[in-house]
Design brief:
Elements (H helix, E strand, L loop, with lengths): L3 H17 L6 H4 L5 H17 L4 E7 L3 H7 L5 E6 L3 E3 L3 E2 L8 E10 L10 H7 E11 L16 H6 L4 E6 L15 E6 L2 E7 L8 H12 L10 E3 L7 E2 L5 E5 L5 E6 L1
Helix pairs in contact: 1-3, 5-7
Length: about 270
């Protein structure tokens, strides 16, 4: 694994990129020996920095939940990141584009926990029992490390993405909240429009066959570090549409059918 000095330096560089709006070079290019565990170690150190600055953890995100994405990055499991209090936006308003570097959006379901979840033997039933309600959500993805190296043309690696808080930059909440047993969550669909044009459609079964399975995986993964998912936290279950790039002035509308709809604009 990377030594402590490199992990600390990398986390500080990512934090500076967040504040300055200028992406840094790919960490995996600077440290070719970097592993998945190194990526999480950098992410954890960055989390400590943000907490020291006064930020508060409000939830977690799960990524790489589709089989196609896992094959593309040669992984056999999802990844995860942290949601902080300054990353939450409400639908119906303007999202400041200058908060981000190269933002993109994707459609998800958000699980709002009413009970604590912790342990290596958590099941889908446990997740549904612990969830107070579920609502539509949009995740804002960003890159504090360069997606493509300008010299070599090399795309950043999954280790870069994990270190970069699993690319998470924000969440937009809205729509109609429902209790987890009131709908068949596998059949929740969404239509995502940009500037009046339908760009993406998706079905939540594309997330590990059930969007709650991402929370199962996360609870078990965090249990290795004696970390639980806490009441009141928001857990993003994973995207069921492809990423959509964002430009200033873009207006989006996400229609979740029986779960309502939400609109937002980047300014």
């Amino acid at each position: 694994m990377l030594n402590k000095a490199v992990i600390t330096k990398s986390a500080a560089a990512l934090n500076s990129a967040l504040q300055s709006g200028e992406a840094i070079g790919q960490l995996s290019l600077a440290y070719p020996e970097m592993t998945i565990d190194d990526g999480y170690a950098i992410q954890e150190e960055w989390t400590r920095l943000r907490l020291a600055e006064g930020r508060r953890i409000v939830g977690r995100k799960i990524g790489l939940t589709s089989r196609a994405m896992q094959v593309a990055v040669q992984l056999d499991e999802p990844d995860y990141g942290t949601l902080f209090d300054d990353m939450v936006f409400e639908a119906g308003g303007d999202i400041p584009l200058d908060r981000f570097i190269v933002p993109m959006v994707e459609v998800e379901l958000a699980f709002y926990l009413g009970e604590r979840l912790q342990g290596e033997h958590i099941t889908l039933t446990d997740v549904l029992r612990a969830t107070e309600f579920i609502s539509p959500a949009i995740e804002i993805i960003d890159a504090r490390t360069q997606r493509i190296d300008p010299v070599s043309g090399r795309r950043r690696q999954v280790t870069d993405t994990i270190a970069d808080n699993a690319a998470c930059a924000g969440i937009i909440t809205g729509g109609r909240p429902v209790r987890p047993m009131d709908v068949d969550l596998r059949w929740v669909g969404a239509i995502l429009s940009r500037n009046g044009v339908v760009e993406e459609t998706g079905l939540s079964a594309g997330v590990l066959n059930h969007p709650g399975n991402g929370i199962v995986w996360l609870a078990r993964r965090l249990a290795r570090h004696n970390i639980g998912l806490e009441p009141g936290q928001i857990i993003l279950g994973g995207s069921f549409t492809r990423l959509m790039p964002v430009e200033r002035g873009d207006t989006f509308h996400a229609d979740f059918g029986p779960l309502g709809s939400m609109g937002f604009r980047f300014t």
